[in-house]
Amino acid sequence: MERYLAIGKETIRYHLIWQVLISIGILCAAPLVLGVRNLNIQETARVVEYYAVFPGIVLLVPIFLPEQNRDIRDLIRSKYTAVGAIYGIRLVLSIVVMMAVSALFLYALKIGECEFPFDTFYPGLLAGMVFLGGIGLLSYALCDNVVVGYMMPLLFYIVSMASGEKYLGKFYLFSMETGSYEEKWYLALAGMLFLGVGIAVRSRKES
Question: Which residues form a coiled coil (predicted)?
C-alpha cells in the first residue's frame, strides 16, 4: 500500500500538478472567450460542450508521458510494481481532478445565473471529457506518440462540429445543445472502453 501511495504522491508532485494548472487556466479563461453570465439552457450547453470538455484531453492523454523518459521507463521495469497499476493510479487521480474542476466550473456558471440542470449537465460534461480523453489515450498507446494522442480527439471534435449528429449518431459530442442526453451514455461507455484498452495495450508494450 505504501508503494502505491508513493506512486500517487510522485504523480501529483511532478506530473499531474501541471495538467491541473493548465485545466484550471482553460476554464478560468472562459469569461474571456465566451459569455458565462445569464445564459439560457441552450447557451449554457454550448459553453459546456464546446469549451469545458478540453481539460479532459489535458488530464487523460499524458498518463503515459513520464515513460517517454528512458531512465524512468527502465526504472519502472526494474521494480516489482506492475506498470498497469502505475497507469491505473495515474488514471484515477486524473479522473478525480477532472470531476472536481468540472463541478467547480458548473458551480461558477450557477453563480453567474446560468440556467441548466446540474444533475444532467455534470455527467454530460464528464462523458464528453472521458470520451475525448479516451480517444487520445488510446491513440497515444497505439502510436507511442503524444502528439498523435492530442491530435486525434481534436480531429474528432472538428468532425463533430462539421458533420453534426447526422453522421455521428449516438457519438455526437454536442447533443445537450439540442436537448438530448442519451448520447452521453454512449460517449461515457466508449470513453471508458478506450481508456481500458489503451492502458492494456500500453502495459503490454512496457512489460
Answer: none
